[in-house]
Amino acid sequence: MLRFLTAGESHGQALVVIVEGLPAGLHITLEEIQAEMGRRRLGYGRGPRQRFEVDELALIGGVRHGRTLGSPVAIEIKNTEWFRSDKWHAEMDPAPGATAAALTQVRPGHADLAGMQKYGFTDARDVLERASARETAARVAAGALAKALLRTIDIEIISHVIQMGAARVDPETARPTPDELDRVDENPVRCFDIAAADAMVAAIKDAAKEGDSLGGVVEVLGFGIPVGLGSHVHWDRKIDALLTQAVMSIQAVKGVEIGDGFDVAGRLGSVAHDAIHWDTETERYRRRSTLAGGTEGGMTTGELLVVRAAMKPLATLNRPTLETVDTATKESAVSFKERTDVTAVPAMGVVAETMVALVVAAEAQRKFGGDSVAEFQRNASNFEATLIDGGR
Questions:
Q1: Position 84 pLDDT exceeds 80
Q2: Would the pLDDT of 7 be above 50?
Q3: Beta bridge pairs of residue 250
Q4: CATH number of the domain that 88 lies in?
Q5: How far is residue 322's CA from residue 107's CA, in Å, rounded to a whole number?
Q6: Number of H helices and number of E strands within the chain?
Q7: Residue 346: domain span
Q8: For 377, which DSSP code?
Q9: Alpha-carbon distance 222 to 164, whole Å?
Q10: Average pLDDT over residues 189-202
């Protein structure tokens, strides 16, 4: 079963991720992982931190001569800012010591206060360093491996931004395909619709002038998803539940829907479900729409997988105005500022791709198994063959 674990703090020396359960023989290079990491840095509205915290990767274990060995894969992501200066050396030193200036003006919308109360800390940095979205860099590295595995059975996971602030893509606009992902990534806000993208950039500029921030919505699309990933038999094996948990775990994501999840709640039942028909050309059952997002009863249907994630506006502002309390003095204050972005929605789309890919890869491994990529592919192909002529 595919699983991963990350470690490290935002301003520490490095992040580390270990991915367990990959079959042997998966072709992977550092350059492929690095390319995926670079996509996480995309998007108009990002702050200067993207220039400072360059991702320097090292494959520590689990890969030899460009292929996985079936053992855990370990990746280190060095924080080059740490090595370029000594700014964070004393503050983040793991050796015994004390901070020069504790952060006590906690930020609304962050993990600061709840984390300090939970763990008994007096310095918000003990919480925020791990709660930071910088941790998602390690997830994206893991996701590069999951995507590589999924491609061996012709599955592609992509994303695009469909809303930024009040600017939205028209629901009737065609969705991008995997062949058009480069066009999405080349857009300053990773939006496939040029008119909507222009409105999004304008909204970001307006927010930036005010020192404010913007949230938005991304849509993740899974192409080539086989029938039957997930299961109806237990609550914790339902594919839509697994996807929702994974995407909701991304920092600042506050809402997740599968297909037209929230919208269909306001429709009549006669227009809220995906009609099924028999495709004589492919000899497959097909759905005529994606209202359910490619899932039914906790299982994938073989149709396009659609997952949407809503990201709140970032709570760290370039013009701090949010009222808070100084936990040391209990006096009213304004929350402190760390380096921040106007928005990180375009980058969040890449992280959401990662989380969807990791869930789909884990469930594909659960269903098809295989200690090697060749065995994994054979098992998936054999199952696909059983669906010909409706599975008879």
A1: yes
A2: yes
A3: none
A4: 3.60.150.10
A5: 8
A6: 12, 18
A7: 3-391
A8: H
A9: 22
A10: 96
Which pair of tokens denotes residue 62?
A: 């689990």
C-alpha to C-alpha distance for 207 and 148, rounded to whole angstroms: 37
Output the average pLDDT for the chain. 93
Residue 8: which of 139, 129, 144 has the closest Cα?
129
Indicate if the pLDDT at residue 108 is higher than 70: yes
Is the per-residue pLDDT at 53 higher than 60? no
φ/ψ of residue 75, rounded to 5: -125, 130
* E strands, the chain, in order: 3-7, 14-20, 55-61, 63-64, 67-68, 73-79, 156-164, 167-168, 216-223, 227-230, 253-258, 276-279, 284-287, 295-296, 299-301, 305-311, 323-325, 332-334
Tokens 């099924």, located at residue: 276
Kindly report the number of other CB atoms within 10 A of residue 371's CB atom. 11
Any idea what DSSP says for residue 294?
A: T
pTM: 0.94
Q: What percent of the chain has pLDDT over 70?
A: 95
**Amino acid found at 380:** A
Rounded distance, CA 173 to CA 162, Å? 10
Tell me, rounded to whole angstroms, the distance of Cα 284 from its chain centroid. 31
Say if residue 374's pLDDT is above 80. Answer: yes
Count of Cβ atoms closer than 10 Å to residue 235 Cβ: 8
d(CA 160, CA 370): 32
C-alpha to C-alpha distances, 340 to 14, 133, 202, 263, 347, nearest whole angstrom: 20, 11, 19, 32, 13
> How many domains would you assign to the chain?
1
CA angle 360, 218, 174 (to 5 degrees): 95
Output the pLDDT for position 51.
46
* Of 174, 201, 179, the residue nearest 189 (C-alpha): 201
Spatial contact of 324 and 107, defined as CB atoms under 8 Å apart: yes
pLDDT of 327-366, one tens digit each?
999 999 987 666 678 999 999 999 999 999 999 999 999 9
Average pLDDT, integer, range 281-285: 89
